[in-house]
Design goal:
With 64 residues, the protein is an all-beta fold. It has one domain. β1 and β2 form a beta hairpin.
């Protein structure tokens, strides 16, 4: 496999927070497609980016 990382990996999570009980719930499954936007650093040529990937906990990854 031939690939190059052009933007450092990003990690994020979606939380629902109950302000009364201070309970936090991580949301990691959605019933429909969910858009996410990431800013490309100015020093990176956008023409070099052909795909994004999700790195799974089991060491595999998939295109997004």
């Amino acid at each position: 496999m031939d690939y190059e990382i052009v933007i450092p990996p990003l990690n994020f999570e979606v939380l629902a927070i109950n302000r009364t009980t201070i309970e936090k719930v991580t949301i990691n499954k959605f019933s429909a497609f969910t858009q996410r936007f990431f800013e490309i650093p100015t020093e990176v040529d956008p023409a070099k980016i052909t795909t994004g990937i999700v790195y799974n906990a089991d060491g595999t990854f998939r295109n997004i």
